[in-house]
């Protein structure tokens, strides 16, 4: 979306924040909070999280339904989002969802956050391409295990049509520092990962992660018992969901 840009500076305490005003362009945000990254290559890193609301997929196991199945939140300007994230005083910022890439204004937000010195991670399912700046493109391609039940027939059809875009994933990993993060629910999913990687043909094995599906310590522990050894066998990184162990499955973490 095109608009008139005007550079501004807000002073927050002893820190100055450069922002960009965009007329008419807003992004729906479900939450902005400070926590610790619990997944992926930057696990353990204190970070500010900006969660957009709305998604073009409907994974049955989604643990942030308030940003996908039942999206909620307020529409904020680029300036407001950047200011609220900046007030959390974290060097690392994670732009997540939902699916951030559904918003045409997301490139402007990324530019604004980067201009203010943030190390920026973008969490995406890799179904939509946008040219934007980030330090880590965290791509989570959805396997067939993500498809909702027949009771959600319209979303089941849409989800299946949208969930895999290898062309988009190839372009994203060609342009960015990246990680590929797969959600695993059963051993058959592991074979699907290998097939996907063979067809993709462009991924660095050291940047491929397999993560157990689950929202409780018990579920994650049960799947870790066989998934971790499979990862070791196939030289894929095992990816724990450490925030579940630290905080439980709750918002703002």
Features of the shown structure:
253 residues; alpha/beta; TIM Barrel; two-stranded antiparallel ribbon; 7 helices; globular
Structural class call reads: alpha/beta
Our count of helices gives 7
Q: What's the SSE pattern?
A: EEEEEHEHEEHHEHEHEH
Into which percentage range does the β-strand content fall? Answer: 25-35%
Helix coverage percent: 25-40%
Total strand count, please? 11
Distance between the termini: 32 Å
Sheet with the most strands, sense and barrel status: 9 strands, mixed
CATH superfamily: Aldolase class I
At CATH level 3, the topology is TIM Barrel
Total number of distinct structural domains: 1
Strand arrangement, major sheet: 5-3-4-6-7-8-9-10-11
Question: What's the structural blueprint in terms of helices and strands?
Answer:
Elements: E1 5-12, E2 15-22, E3 26-36, E4 46-52, E5 74-77, H1 78-87, E6 92-96, H2 106-115, E7 119-124, E8 136-139, H3 153-162, H4 166-175, E9 178-184, H5 187-200, E10 208-212, H6 217-233, E11 237-238, H7 242-247
Parallel strand pairs: 4-6, 6-7, 7-8, 8-9, 9-10, 10-11
Antiparallel strand pairs: 1-2, 3-4, 3-5
Helix pairs in contact: 1-2
């Amino acid at each position: 979306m095109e608009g008139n840009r005007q550079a501004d500076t807000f002073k927050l305490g002893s820190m100055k924040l450069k922002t960009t005003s965009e007329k008419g362009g807003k992004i729906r945000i479900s939450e902005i909070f400070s926590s610790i990254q619990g997944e992926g290559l930057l696990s353990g890193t204190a970070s500010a999280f900006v969660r957009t609301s709305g998604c073009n997929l409907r994974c049955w196991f989604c643990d942030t339904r308030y940003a996908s199945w039942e999206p909620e939140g307020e529409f904020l300007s680029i300036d407001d989002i950047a200011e609220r994230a900046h007030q959390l005083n974290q060097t690392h910022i994670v732009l997540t969802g939902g699916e951030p890439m559904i918003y045409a204004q997301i490139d402007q937000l990324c530019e604004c956050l980067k201009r203010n010195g943030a190390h920026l991670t973008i969490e995406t399912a890799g179904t939509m391409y946008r040219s934007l700046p980030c330090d880590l493109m965290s791509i989570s391609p959805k396997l067939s295990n993500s498809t909702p039940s027949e009771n959600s027939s319209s979303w089941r059809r849409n989800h299946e049509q949208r969930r895999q875009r290898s062309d988009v994933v190839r372009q994203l990993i060609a342009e960015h520092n990246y990680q590929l993060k797969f959600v695993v629910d059963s051993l058959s999913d592991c074979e699907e990962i290998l097939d996907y990687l063979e067809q993709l043909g462009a991924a660095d094995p050291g940047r491929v992660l397999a993560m157990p599906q689950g929202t409780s310590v018990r579920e994650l522990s049960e799947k870790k018992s066989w998934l971790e050894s499979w990862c070791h066998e196939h030289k894929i990184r095992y990816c724990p969901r450490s925030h579940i162990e630290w905080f439980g499955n709750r918002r703002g973490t």
